[in-house]
Amino acid sequence: MKDLVNLCLVPGISGREEKVRKKIIEMVDGFKYSVDDIGNLTIEVGDGKETIMMMAHMDEIGFYISNIRKDGKLVIRKVGGISDELLPGRHVEVIIDSGNTKIDGVIGSVPPHLAKDGMIFEPVVDVGADNSEEVKKMGIEILDFVVFKKHTSTLNGEFISMRALDDRFGCYALVEVLKRIKPKKHVIFAWTVQEEIGLKGAKALTNKYNPDTVYAIDAFACCSKQNNHIKIGNGPVLRMVDNSAIASFAEMKHILKVAKLVNIPIQIGTTGGGTDGSVYVEHGVKMVPITLAVKYMHSEVEMISIKDLENLIKLLTVLASE
Questions:
Q1: For the segment 119-161, what is each residue's pLDDT rounded down to a tens digit?
Q2: Do both 101 and 218 map to the same domain?
């Protein structure tokens, strides 16, 4: 899991994925790649008559600094779906645009002793500065970005928990599949930008690529009332219905047949949200999101099954090589 953890540790919110992209390029050393004007990274292999595309997004949820107050606090703007409940009492990192420097900060909380006095929580970052001039001397500027500080836990030898598993596990899976396959199809690997704010990178790719089939590799929020049959550890999940698209039932049957032949467990579910693959449905392309069940999605403790990730990589390798 070392490579996956290192990829998760790289900060990169929507619109600022450059460090993540650089890390992935290092991981796929030796393969010819291209980067478009908004930052999507693509690699093409194989020359078969059928073209498939596998997509995973590089961006994570986080914040942009929208203002630096006179008292030295940083006003932040959410990027992606972040619950207000997550904010109080958190460690964060400020990523400075002028270099690779990370500056520690915290989002404070209101002690119960002072809540009775009417003290109100403010969603601002404290970097230990007394005024705006001190902040600027630290190199922090408006539009630098902020991420939650990341910690890794391995639970019961079966699960990994960490911020940014959504969708760095997908990015990692594509890297592994790329290294393993002997493609009998034309396969396009796409690591996209700005998924968390509306699938912007994927939409841009529709202007360049017209595959026969698209697989979006992303997260599936499990453990809700509507899909409590989906369990981490029980195999990859075909995310057939969400708020962005209804996936191809014909392709679902094909994937199920392939998975059965190679003895890979598969789950099927519906959820909210959307995936990059949905933009291709509007262009008449059959699409299925092949996802992993994720506990506590969009939090600091996102959790996946290591076994599920291994099975996801195996399944994608077979689909690209059959």
A1: 789 999 999 999 999 999 999 999 999 999 999 999 999 999 9
A2: no
- Residue 104: give the domain boundaries: 62-148
This prediction has a pTM of 0.95
Residue 35 lies in a domain: yes
User: d(Cα 6, Cα 25) in Å, to the nearest integer?
Assistant: 14
In the structure encoding, which two tokens stand for residue 296, read together? 């506590």
User: How many angstroms separate the CA atoms of 311 and 292, rounded?
Assistant: 10
CATH of the domain at 271: 3.40.630.10
CB 282 within 8 A of CB 143: no
Could you tell me if 18 and 85 lie in one domain?
Answer: no
Instruction: Quick: pLDDT tens for 33-43.
Output: 999 999 999 99
Residue tagged 């539009």 (tokens): 143
Q: Domain for residue 268, yes or no?
A: yes
Residue identified by tokens 């420097």 is 101
Identify any residues that bridge with 102 across adjacent strands, giving them in sequence order: 95
Q: What radius of gyration, in Å, describes the C-alpha atoms of the chain?
A: 20
Per residue in 267-318, pLDDT (tens digit) is 999 998 999 999 999 999 999 999 999 999 999 999 999 999 999 999 999 9
How many Å apart are CA 179 and CA 267, to the nearest integer? 26
In what helix (H) or strand (E) does residue 20 lie, and over which residues does it extend? helix 18-27
> Which residues, in sequence order, are CB contacts of 80 under 8 Å at separation 6+?
13, 14, 59, 60, 61, 62, 196, 197, 298
Residues 257 and 288 placed together within one structural domain of the fold: yes
